[in-house]
Each structure stands twice: as structure tokens, then as C-alpha cells.
Write a structure and sequence with these properties.
- By secondary structure, this protein is an alpha/beta fold.
- The model is unreliable at 1-9 and 263-268 (pLDDT under 50).
- It is globular, with a radius of gyration of 20 Å.
- Helix 7 packs across helix 8 (162-175).
- It is built from 13 helices and seven strands.
- 38% of the residues lie in helices and 12% in strands.
- It folds into two domains: 15-108 and 217-323, Vaccinia Virus protein VP39 (Rossmann fold, 3-Layer(aba) Sandwich); 114-215, DNA polymerase, domain 1 (Orthogonal Bundle).
- A seven-stranded mixed beta sheet has the order 3-2-1-4-5-7-6, with helices on both faces.
Length: 336
Amino acid sequence: MVSDPVQQPHVPVLLRPILANVAPVTGTWIDGTFGAGGYTRGLLDAGATRVVGIDQDPLAIEMAQPWAGQYGDRLTIVQDNFANLDTVAGENCPEGVDGIVLDLGVSSMQLDLAERGFSFLRDGPLDMRMSQSGPSAADLVNTLEEGPLADILYLYGEERASRRIARAIARERAVEPITTTLRLAKIIEGCLPRAKPGQSHPATRSFQALRIAVNDEYGALAEGLMAAERALKPGGILAVVSFHSIEDRMVKRFFQLRAGGTGNANRYAPQLEEESPAFTQKTRKGIGPDDEELEINPRSRSARLRIGYRTDAPADDIDRAALGMPGAGDRKGRKG
């Protein structure tokens, strides 16, 4: 059991534009990243017949217990990864799935718990496991060789000083294992210029990269998008909120490919044959927060919403390389 997170209202990012673009909200929905339940409650209150919430974090399910009962059998919560949402749908949605919402990345309740190890601003064990199982961030930081560690920082966090940071980590862990968030943050800060007012903390990109690697977030995203395609009825809606450029690029590329786009995300990927589109889109541009949302929730500043509408074309798999997932061969732009 962990201590209670900082008590503050949970504000689901871009919920208003989701509800506006999918109105009227009806039928059965899957909230594939349940978290604090903001999207689930928004969908149920807007008219969804039923919502199945999925989260791999047992804390999310525990925290929902005080309020979930008010929705009766309209709400089902399942502990799983959204990469498996088509399996969850098959077991829990005999009536089919009319809509799916995915909110990618770490939730505010996880960031606010020092014990979870996501935050470079609060001291805690260097953990970052959303499922609270498997290898932790401390395991990666203390056991990976310097080269693979630098690859993670660069490819998943777009940290251009990845080699310099990996060298510093290797040097420091030789003295004593790195087991806390603030110690790692201090090591990273020592490798980079001091942040100017308004700039992000120097450890932001590295912590993001480690979190993504620990939880295989890009792999789960690729699998989850394809699982959503398999699960949705014709006419069903897929709404995805992403928070940084690599995630948004993968989601954008998925919709491009599955909405009848041609070509490849990179020149090394196999050429894809044109198929009947599995999705349509009202707009190919991502939807960002408006001024009102930015005022209420500053964490929404980097968020982008993309929405696709399922056709009756057969579902198909997509090579991960075609989605533009970071690859170990892409090292251009990295510094010392």
C-alpha cells in the first residue's frame, strides 16, 4: 500500500473536444488507460451505455472503488495492459465496442506519488513500473552497459546529450548503485546546462526515456492501436491523446496508413500495399488544448488528440517499423 497522492482535482486532458467530436456518446466504450477514471466518468455522464476501463496499475483500480459503484453494471474495471484490449473486449463486451479512448503516458496520480519513482522533483525509489511488476528503472540504470543505456535516453527521450549522461551514470553507479530519483536527477543535472526560467527540468527527457523503456510504452502503443482496430465495430470511434512527439507521430502514422495513406515511415521499412481503409478521419490535424484548458490544466500544453472512425474493412497488422517506432540504428543528432 502506498501513501495517498497529493489531493487535487483530476482533470482529464482534452475530454471536452473528445466528447464534442464523438457526440452523441452512445453504446459501449473502452477506456484503455483508465487511470483516475476521468475519461470513463466523462463518457458515462455524457450518455455511454457502458464503459470497460482497463489499467495495468493495481493502484488505479484500488482508487476507483469509492466511486465506481455509483455506476452499477454500467462500469467494469479490468487490470490489464491496453495492448490486450481486443482480448478484454472479447471477454467483456459481447455487444461489441462502439468507441475506445486512450490517454498515453504517465498519469498525474502516478507522478504525484514519490513512492512510484516517476518524478525527478520528489525523492523516492527509482521504480517507474506502471504494473508494479518486472524490472524497474533502477535495474536498467544499474545493469545496462553504457551504450544501450545511451540508446534508451536518445531514442526514447530524444536526449541529445545521451552519451554524456550515460557515462556519468556509469561512473556514479560504480561508486554506489543509483536507487533514488533525486540522486539520478542530480547526476543528469550535472551533465546539462542549468534550465532557464520557463524551460523544462534537465532530467525531463531522461526520466521520460527510462519510463518508456521500463513499461515498453511504444510497443504497447503499437499493439494497442492494432488491437483497437480489431475490437471496434464498423462506425466505431478511436480517440487517442498523446503527450510527446514520438507517440503523436506513431498515432498519426497509424491513422495515415489505416485511412488509406501510402508510403512508409522510413526508407528501410518494407513497401506496404494499398488496402481498403480501416479508418476515416474528419481531419488529419491533431487537436490541441484551448486557452481555457491550459489555464485549468497546464500539463495539457503538449497534448494532441487524434480521432479515427472505423470502417467495415478487415482489420490487419502493421509492421512496427511502418509506425515510425524508434530504432536502434537511428543515432543521428546525438552529442557527446
